[in-house]
Amino acid sequence: MALTDPAPPTHFIKRIIEEDLKTNKYDGRVMTRFPPEPNGYLHIGHAKSICLNFGLAETYGGLCNLRFDDTNPTKEEFEYVESIKEDVHWLGFDWDDRLYYASDYFEQLFDYAVQLIKKGKAYVDSLSAEEIKEYRGTLTEAGKESPYRNRSIEENLDLFRRMRAGEFQDGTHVLRAKIDMASGNLNMRDPVMYRILHAEHHRTGNKWCIYPMYDWAHGLCDSIEKITHSICTLEFEDHRPLYDWFLEELGVYQPQQIEFARLNLTHTVMSKRKLLRLVEEGYVRGWDDPRMPTISGLRRRGYTPEAVKDFSERIGVAKKDSMVDIKLLEWCIREDLNKHAPRVMGVLRPLRVVIENYPEDQVEELEAINNPENPTMGTRMVPFSRVLYVERDDFREDPPKKWFRLAPGREVRLRYGYYITCVDVVKDKKTGEVVELRCTYDPATKGGWSPDGRKVRGTLHWVSAGHAIEAEVRLYDHLFLKANPEEVEEGGDFKSNVSPNSLEVLQSCRLEPSLAGATPKSRYQFERLGYFCPDPDSSVSKLVFNRTVTLRDTWAKIEKKMKEEIKQ
Ligand code: ATP
Ligand code: MG
């Protein structure tokens, strides 16, 4: 492949690939793969890896395979395979006919293992798992050779074949590479290649009772698929010598492994194992709970693939671990939705407003702009009538300084509507709670401006009570209180940092009637409140919306800041 118009390299992996293309290292090919283990749903960290692997292939005219690393039968499920495929597609990538499973190669991997045994480079060890651990040594101490290390090739071949044939119990034997028990790299101290596991595999059923270990399987799968750049996360850096050793000893095609720093995000955990615990122990409603950092959770929350891809680009690819602020992810979705989501009006906590001088039976259709950022999105009509709802938070009986919204005697603008003035407050006799505002409107201010030049500072969203549709709205906050949920008291674990306020469900919200036809894929900006999308739970008889993200700081935050300033 000739690079006609190379973009300037923006990270070290691109530089490596461009150098390899220049030197024709792999005959000008670029072949990457995304290799998830189907033991959970994918998270935003995987999204980064998907965007990187599929993205590099796209950039350099290469291909990217989807390969399931299904070497661990006990933790893997079909459900996960399906969800992973869906997530990769949702991000806009396609593996065409290159969908592979490590389990497709089990026979070939077995043959390779036999080759290594024949070369005297692998042996069957009959130490127990604990003994193997003990013999392994430590970072400062060399390991000890197993008494079984010098079994003859014939004996090893015989035992290994019998391991496969199911003659032995789990844990009685393993196949190990014969490398160096004194190596400074623990991964090179005769790593285990196969273990006996009488377990049913989601694809191979009961055909196998020995299963390959990750390090043994991974490099060979890469080799079989003629991968050029095998990109993985930093924790595999110390495994690279082993990756290379296996391939060199077998004399097979050798890709190069390149490590990059995994994505960590504030206020969330990023390991399938931990996410599974949140699901199983009921901290969230499922893998696709909108508070989860899973791709399916983000999707349900209303994130777009474009925003996730943009985020992946912006965080870049580094060689050193770091923690990315979740605000950046939120910023990316706001950027996207700001341009594309139509704006509508919805009232989350309704307070009834009666316009006393507005005729009882009159209804006007007022023109509202769908997206001021994007004039091509046009306008729509919203009904206005004598009885409206405004946001309860937009009224204060006793307003603080700099309050420009409704209060007794105050005039405000209703978006696309009229100026109204609060003339009276109706309270519940027993509780004293404000239940209704009595207001007047100025008919000369239609459209939201005054011919006499009279200015008002506050503009409120509203809906017409008789026309509004009811909905449940779910508001989300960070799943974890601490920026780093792993920061725990002695003896505690990450779950002690789960926020008790990550979900707030509001019933009887009132939305403008145009939202009646909202489909699951639609996204909206509810003016002044944030971005929202219908939840899959939503139905014609009961609308349910999720808040994807707020617009910016809420009034509560601004007020808190003001109070702090006053104190100083
Ligand atoms: P987890 O610990 O969440 O289970 P994993 O690395 O075990 O992650 P795999 O299914 O093995 O999950 O990962 C598939 C690919 O995604 C691997 O290449 C892995 O390096 C990459 N990946 C996983 N987590 C991250 C992350 N946080 N950031 C970037 N890439 C990641
Ligand atoms: Mg893994």
Describe the overall structure.
With 568 residues, this protein is of the alpha/beta class. Among the domains are: 13-260, HUPs (Rossmann fold); 346-461, Ribosomal Protein L25, Chain P, CATH 2.40.240.10. Helix content is 26%, strand content 23%. The chain contains 13 helices and 27 strands. β18 and β19 (419-427) form a beta hairpin. α2 (44-59) packs across α11. The N and C termini lie far apart (65 Å). Bound molecules: adenosine-5'-triphosphate and magnesium ion. Residues 35-37, 45-46, 48-49, 232-233, 262-263, 270-272 line the site of adenosine-5'-triphosphate.
Short description:
The protein has 568 residues and is α/β, with parallel strands linked by helices. The protein has 13 helices and 27 strands. Among the domains are: 13-260, HUPs (Rossmann fold); 346-461, Ribosomal Protein L25, Chain P (Beta Barrel).
